Q: What sequence folds into this?
């Protein structure tokens, strides 16, 4: 158990819908990272937040957005869903934006299926 | 653009055998990470390599980093079935940050 908590674990929805994925980082960790894992794209970095502020953006679609709240939990919002958005979405955290080791600790993931 | 390439992508081996997984990356980095993922599960950190020449060992797995060659290896000694999983290497997008770029993964299957 990494200490990173993600909900829901599984989610099935239809095209065109909107979903919200939630992540609670490890206690004391200020940074949250979102990754998408799909069969064709592999593991892709989406976005990073540090202490409530967006720190870096990766391959995140405009239909996707995220935020980190004062209690440091984060939400990833996916809208106008398409079949290709079906994937495993991971959240990860680490103590600081530029920690000594940079090691990321991953949650169990949220598996999204778009039908 | 940072590219991280692993080979092989798939490895089937028998118990008791040795093998090496290779991870090449395209830009300068003095850090590299190895993760393990069981099917449908989370990514578990295996090794953190923080400098040129770093070598870490845990059980039957040993990882090393050559920053000049931009190459890391994950060596498996006397494989056992429990090592069956997908192994990923990852490199920071830049040395100032922790956004990791992952390789495509090596799916390891160890047969009895």
A:
């Amino acid at each position: 158990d990494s200490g990173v908590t993600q909900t829901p674990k599984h989610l099935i929805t239809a095209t065109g819908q909107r979903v919200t994925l939630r992540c609670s980082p490890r206690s004391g960790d200020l940074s949250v990272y979102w990754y998408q894992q799909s069969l064709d794209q592999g593991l892709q970095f989406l976005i990073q937040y540090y202490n409530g502020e967006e720190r870096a953006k990766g391959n995140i679609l405009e239909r996707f957005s995220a935020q980190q709240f004062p209690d440091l939990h984060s939400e990833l919002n996916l809208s106008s869903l398409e079949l290709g958005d079906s994937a495993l979405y991971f959240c990860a955290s680490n103590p600081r934006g530029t920690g000594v080791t940079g090691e990321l600790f991953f949650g169990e993931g949220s598996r999204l299926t778009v039908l | 653009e940072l590219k991280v390439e692993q080979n092989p992508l798939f490895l089937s081996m028998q118990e008791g055998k040795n093998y090496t997984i290779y991870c090449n990356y395209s830009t300068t980095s003095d850090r590299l990470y190895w993760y393990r993922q069981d099917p449908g599960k989370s990514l578990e950190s295996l090794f953190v390599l923080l400098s040129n020449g770093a070598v870490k060992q845990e059980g039957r797995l040993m990882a090393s980093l050559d920053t000049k060659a931009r190459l890391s290896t994950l060596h498996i000694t006397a494989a056992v079935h429990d090592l069956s999983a997908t192994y990923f290497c990852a490199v920071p997008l830049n040395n100032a940050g922790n956004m990791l770029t992952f390789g495509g993964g090596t799916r390891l299957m160890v047969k009895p």
